[in-house]
């Protein structure tokens, strides 16, 4: 994540957007259950909201410095922070009641790798569990924010098929302005 993007994702303005608009829209009344996996936690502002909605949260972050900072900040809470690659999660099958991917898929450098992240999310999700996520659509402003950074936006018109191919059932994909949200389940 470049410096400008990191500053935005760690800002009070982003925290307010996450708390009051983004996560309520993404969660849409879905129960997260007792054990939630957050893929791509970044600086952890989404983690802060998730940890108030679940008994346990595991936050996975690839970037070592971000993972270390988040681990230090959330020590002693209901959050376990792991440094791991979301394309090959070192986690047990069928463990989590919910898995989230919150504005992170566009940081994954290829569609093949993004598909692997989706497949891993399905693998670690319990049967009947829910996978919830959001991402930003391709806009000139987002391209500018990601200058010198990985930016491979999710294509909403292909996302339903990609979720199904990853093993999910009943995927729903919706756009609102410059954002897409998705929800799918793992078959019982």
What are the SSEs and their pairings?
Elements: H1 3-9, H2 12-27, E1 35-39, H3 45-50, E2 56-61, H4 64-73, E3 79-83, E4 96-102, H5 111-124, E5 125-136, H6 140-145, H7 156-165, E6 168-176, E7 179-186
Parallel strand pairs: 1-2, 1-4, 2-3, 4-5
Antiparallel strand pairs: 5-7, 6-7
- How far do the termini sit from each other? 37 Å
Q: What oligomeric arrangement do these chains adopt? A: single chain
Question: Helicity level, as a percent range?
Answer: 25-40%
**Biggest sheet: strands, sense, closure?**
7 strands, mixed
CATH topology assignment: Rossmann fold
CATH superfamily: Vaccinia Virus protein VP39
Number of helices: 7
Strand residues, percent: 25-35%
Shape summary? globular
Structural class determined from secondary elements: alpha/beta
- Integer tally of domains: 1
Q: What is the residue-mean pLDDT, rounded to a whole number?
A: 96
CATH class category: Alpha Beta
């Amino acid at each position: 994540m470049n410096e400008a993007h990191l500053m935005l994702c760690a800002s009070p303005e982003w925290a307010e957007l996450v708390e009051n608009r983004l996560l309520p829209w993404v969660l849409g009344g879905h129960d997260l259950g007792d054990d939630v996996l957050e893929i791509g936690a970044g600086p952890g502002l989404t983690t802060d909201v998730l940890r108030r909605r679940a008994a346990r949260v595991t936050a996975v972050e690839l970037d070592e410095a971000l993972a270390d900072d988040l681990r230090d900040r959330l020590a002693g809470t209901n959050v376990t922070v792991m440094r791991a690659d979301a394309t090959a999660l070192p986690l047990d099958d069928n463990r989590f009641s919910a898995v989230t991917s919150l504005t992170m898929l566009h940081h994954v450098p290829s569609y093949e790798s993004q598909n692997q992240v989706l497949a891993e999310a399905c693998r670690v999700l319990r049967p009947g569990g829910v996978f919830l996520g959001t991402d930003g659509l391709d806009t000139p402003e987002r391209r500018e924010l990601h200058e010198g950074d990985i930016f491979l936006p999710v294509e909403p018109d292909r996302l339903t098929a990609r979720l199904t191919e990853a093993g999910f059932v009943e995927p729903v994909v919706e756009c609102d302005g410059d954002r897409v949200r998705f929800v799918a389940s793992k078959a019982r």
